[in-house]
Amino acid sequence: MALDLYFLNESSTRRISQYLFRLFNVKVSHVTIANWTKKFATYFRLKSDKLLKDVDLSDSDEWHADETVIFINGKRHYLWLVINSESRVIISYHLSPYRYAKQAFSLFNDAKKFGSPRAIVTDRLPSYNVPIKSTFKDTVHIKVQSFRDDISNNIIESLTKHLNPIIKV
């Protein structure tokens, strides 16, 4: 998690240290986190370059977004995700104790670096409405109600179903 925060969210090592202490009651020196980043940076770069060399994340017609509940130290949090429907790659995520538009803005502002899809498929959570409309002006927001709709969010629902047992904290 510390490396994720450093490499993907561009957080400082001091902020990560404070975050780990507040959230998990784990004391890790910011110097230790800096050492981890130096140690694993080359490895992560090689792995990600190898995995993503044939994937064009900017050329997608459709993204799927969803949030799922996870419990961290007994407290409810939401893991927000956006995936590219063609590659099934997670292009953005956000962890928060809240499910408001502010968190959706954060999620989509991060995803925006991969371009603008023609459509974003979500459930009917109202928190998605304004962030999608203002972040992706020419993108159609498709809100699905149930698994029986013609267009579904099954791709990301399936992903979160498989992630939940893995990320229990």
From TrEMBL:
Could you tell me which InterPro entries the record lists for this protein? DDE_dom, Integrase_cat-core, IS_Transposase, RNaseH-like_sf, RNaseH_sf, Transpos_IS6
Report which superkingdom the organism of origin falls in: Bacteria
Q: Does DNA-binding appear among the keywords?
A: yes
Q: Which UniProt keywords apply?
A: DNA recombination, DNA-binding, Transposition
Q: Fetch the PANTHER family from UniProt.
A: BLL1675 PROTEIN
This one is known as ISCb1g3, transposase
Recall the GO molecular function terms of this protein's record. DNA binding
* PROSITE patterns assigned to the protein according to its UniProt record, in alphabetical order: INTEGRASE
Q: Where is the Integrase catalytic domain?
A: 55-169
A GO biological process of this protein is: DNA recombination
Its biological purpose: Involved in the transposition of the insertion sequence.
Q: Which organism is it from?
A: Clostridium sporogenes
